[in-house]
Amino acid sequence: MRLWTYLCALKTTIGWVHGVVTLLGAYGLAYLSGMSLSLVFKGDAAMRLLPSMLLTPLLVCCFGFWLLFSKTLLDVIVKIALLAFINACIIAFF
Amino acid sequence: MVIKFWFIFLLSTQLFAHKIEGLNLIITPIESDTISIEGKMKGSGKKLEGNKIALISMIDKRILEEAFLEGGKPLQLKIPQESYWVYLYVGDQDVVEEGPAPKEGFKKIVTSQKERAFRTMGTLCLGFITLFLTISGYRIYGYKRRKKAVSLRF
Amino acid sequence: MLEKSLIFKYLYRSHTIIGLLVLFLFYMSTYFGTLTFFMPYLKVWESPSRHFAPQHNHAFNIDALLDEVLEKHHFLGDKPVEITLPSFRDPLLKISSEAQNSLYINPVTNEVLKVAKEENLISTFFNELHTGIVIPLVGMPLMGMMSVGILFLTFGGFWLYLQKRSHRTSSKASWRATWLSWHKITGLAIIPYALVFALTGAFLGLMLSSSQPFAWSMTHGTVSNMRTLVAPILFAQPKYKGGETTKQMLPFSTLQALAQEHYPQLSITNATLYHYGKEGAKVRFRGYDKENVAQSGRVNRPSITLDASSGAVVEHKTLDKTHGISRTLSTFYFLHFVPDETLGLRVVLALFGAILAISLASGYLLWAEKKLHQQGFLADLTNRVSIAILIGIIPSSALVPFLHWVLAYELFDKEIWIRGTFYAFWSFWLFYTVFERSIVMIISRMLKSAAWLLLLCVLFHGLKSGFFFWQSFHQKAWILFYMDLALILSSMVLFYMAKWVEKKELFYRYERKGVFDGY
Predict the structure, then answer these.
(1) Chain A neighbors (3+ CB pairs < 8 Å)
(2) Which of B44, B102, B139, C48 is the 20 to 30 A CA-CA neighbour of B76?
(3) pLDDT tier at C34 (50, 70, 90 boundaries)?
(4) Which of B:91-120 have CB within 8 Å of C?
(5) Which CATH number among 3.50.70, 2.40.10, 3.20.20, 3.10.450 corresponds to the domain C241-337?
(6) Which region among A65-74, C8-17, C216-225 has the lowest average model confidence (pLDDT)?
């Protein structure tokens, strides 16, 4: 119960937990999306691998901002879980 | 805190980075005073082929013996009678290892200098870092004591 | 979504935290990266075997020498032999193969040189410091992560700038406002530079070393090595069969002239010999396309292959025939390495690098200003440690060329001595920053020692190599002359800065607070 209130607490500054979760989440999500991008692209191995590798550093930043602008810790976790699930589906079934 | 952590981390790790990456020169002494020499890529484990190997005297930098690595077999050479280095030539890099001594020992010996530079500079480096830590600790200690004294006065 | 004030707050705080995390390593990378823009010239300056006045059209003639050299030094065999022609990067002609130590030939005197690897000691070391490879295992990925951090900071900083403009405009005449405006102006000026270099840096440092997941997912879990998938497509090496019987080869210069005739836009930098001296021998000439330098960088050289005995064209690979990704990669690498460009562009990029360093430093000062009025010892200590890093790097790196010229060439572990001394000297400054109380004193001593070291290294360079700058001016060895001149000039600048620091009240402000003021 206490954890729940902690997760739902509105943040006015970024705490350590928020920061670390955002950082790790941004990297993790970017790598996952890069992996699924390399499946989605068409062409030979070079055409598929290198563009997704080039995009990943940019994706890290995008996910970083997206996760940063969430009001509660719960928001962050929900966002990460959602995208991780979508990417896992793409990697598994594509 | 973050900064201090970074800096210590930096210095402590950078010290251990003086060997040539990616290549292994494997020297194993076998019986009757011969050594077998092999070169291997660290990543793929592929053996080197056709590279020049030289045994070079530590005393006067003379080339004692030259040979070439051949198709996958380890190269066998006789151990010379004086302290020597084994050089492996690869493109722009040389890999250098100190050669092992024969059974009865070398006739002419130069004391091993393998890690001399590394040890000296490593000690110096760590010495300065220790000095830094002690002095800043001492300063902080003094600062806290002074503060206490000030607050006691009132 | 959040309301505007909260967005601003979040951005601001994340900008500060990530900035502090990234600052020190990336400052190191920027500093040495800016120096490595001048690497080709530094390479010439640091090795005595390259100390000669290069002729304009590289009037070398290795036709007579080639057969003999290849025979004598065991180059003939199944492995291709690579010849690097003299250029502004290296005035020596280089012959190398996978199996042999490289050979260097002086194109003016046709003398065969055996150059020790210690010759490139300074530039190699600076380059390794720039890429972070000096930190074992994690070094390069770590620098890559720092680059991603810089990407984040650039975007975030620009966003903050936009927000701030609409948000509020407070301009108190304080140091904080000064630093803020410095940080803002320099930051805005280098946005394109920072984006390009951070993105390429992140790709080179982080993505190349952590490419396994991508390869793994693309091949559905069978192969996890990106190189084995991509290298055969992008870097396909031609395989030529050689016969057994020996045959007379055409002279090298004739072959080169023929290649030039068939492919006039090609500026030849390298040649590869396959099965030289045997029947069916081929020579492949590679270089950059004069009309499209960016796309024909080091990873995507157009080439023309000739039969070495008849001079007939075997393969003609123009730029349009190369892989599209290769061309993109080449452009990308071009932006980071500027491989075939000479001094002009390099100076411009180095200026941008200096501005980036100023931007990073003013970012730190902005944070330090806020902490200055806080109680406690932490702010003072961090200030001192960051002086040791941000400014202490200058004397430490000035020590490297000095020692390079002072220590004997025969010393077999010279490289380790010099690298060790660099770290020891750096940690000496770390110690000195807490030992000495006056910050102005610390900074000016750092700058002065750096200036003296640079002057001395010019002196010792003259003594050891016999090329004092007036002599190199006389003999028209311009690279040596300008390197010496640049070192003397930067030494003067450092002297001036050391004097300037002593007069500025700004630096005294940092001395009053905290632990080290004492009484």
Answers:
(1) C
(2) B44
(3) very high
(4) 91-94, 96, 113, 116-118, 120
(5) 3.10.450
(6) C216-225
